[in-house]
């Protein structure tokens, strides 16, 4: 389906929305079945414990988030929040930091306003795929305690499956299929218009925000999947 969306809408400004809507639809449609035998999650509204972690996303997720941020900033109620400014500020503080350094800094995600994620409907796969069974363990881990947080393995596995399927389709379409640090990628997308259009014609317009990635290993894996 990802391949079909890209083939039928190669230059459409709605390509990002169609791709990610389908990713999220698949994730939400399957995660319930995958976790029905597990205890209830501890993740609830108003618990941003994990929202100081580095978030790794694909380019379509960044461009969809950028559109969402622009819509919020354009609304009277959103202007006071200034999401674009918040993203730029967090990016300046966290850019180039490793996951360990990012967590130690304890800089909250720019999307957390009064303890709540204001882009929750379009939160990336990385956020959807990180789910805990113990809220206190999360809080202790964020505080720097050496604690093993009990995470939902089905959430992690399904996130990985959905992300790999999307990356494989992007690669087949000749588009940049790497992974990017969310705040840096968003700052780039919001700072200069046209990065989304450039990406649709094969340019890695978010290259500055790219994270280290095993291109060869992932490419071999995708080729093997396509051959089956």
**CA radius of gyration:** 18 Å
Task: Determine the structural class based on helices, strands and strand pairing.
Answer: mainly alpha
The biggest beta sheet reads: 2 strands, antiparallel
Helix content: 55-70%
Strand order of the largest sheet: 1-4
Taken from the alpha-carbon principal axes, the silhouette is globular
Element-by-element helix/strand order: HHEHHHHEEHHHEHHH
Individual helix count: 12
Mean pLDDT: 90
| Count of domains | 1
N→C terminal distance: 17 Å
Notable characteristics:
4% strand; single chain; 228 residues; mainly alpha; two-stranded antiparallel sheet
What is the strand and helix layout of this fold?
Elements (H helix, E strand, L loop, with lengths): L1 H7 L6 H21 L20 E2 L1 H16 L1 H4 L3 H12 L4 H7 L6 E2 L2 E2 L7 H4 L6 H8 L10 H20 L7 E2 H10 L3 H6 L14 H13 L1
Antiparallel strand pairs: 1-4, 2-3
Helix pairs in contact: 2-3, 2-9, 3-10, 5-10, 9-12
Describe the structure.
The protein is mainly alpha-helical. The chain has one domain (2-220). Helices cover 56% and strands 4% of the residues. The strands form two sheets. A two-stranded antiparallel ribbon has the order 1-4. It has a two-stranded antiparallel ribbon with strand order 2-3. The longest helix has 21 residues, at 15-35. The relative contact order is 0.18.
Brief summary of the model shown:
With 228 residues, the protein is mainly alpha-helical. The protein is built from twelve helices and four strands.
């Amino acid at each position: 389906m990802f391949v079909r969306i890209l083939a039928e809408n190669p230059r459409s400004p709605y390509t990002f929305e169609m791709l990610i809507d389908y990713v999220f639809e698949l994730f939400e449609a399957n995660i319930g079945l995958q976790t029905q035998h597990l205890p209830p999650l501890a993740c609830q509204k108003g618990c941003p414990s994990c929202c100081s972690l580095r978030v790794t996303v694909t380019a379509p997720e960044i461009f969809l988030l950028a559109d969402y941020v622009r819509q919020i900033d354009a609304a009277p109620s959103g202007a006071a929040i200034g999401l674009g400014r918040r993203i730029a500020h967090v990016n300046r503080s966290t850019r180039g930091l490793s996951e360990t350094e990012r967590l130690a800094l304890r800089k909250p995600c720019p999307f957390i306003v009064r303890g709540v994620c204001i882009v929750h409907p379009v939160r990336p796969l990385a956020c959807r795929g990180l789910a805990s069974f113990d809220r206190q363990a999360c809080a202790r881990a964020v505080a720097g305690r050496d604690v093993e947080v009990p995470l939902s393995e089905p959430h992690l596995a399904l996130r990985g499956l959905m992300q790999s399927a999307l990356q494989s389709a992007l690669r087949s379409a000749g588009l940049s299929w790497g992974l990017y640090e969310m705040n840096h990628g968003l700052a780039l997308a919001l700072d200069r218009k046209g990065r989304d259009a450039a990406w649709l014609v094969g340019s890695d317009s978010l290259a500055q925000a790219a994270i280290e990635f095993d291109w060869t290993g992932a490419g071999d894996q995708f080729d093997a999947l396509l051959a089956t």
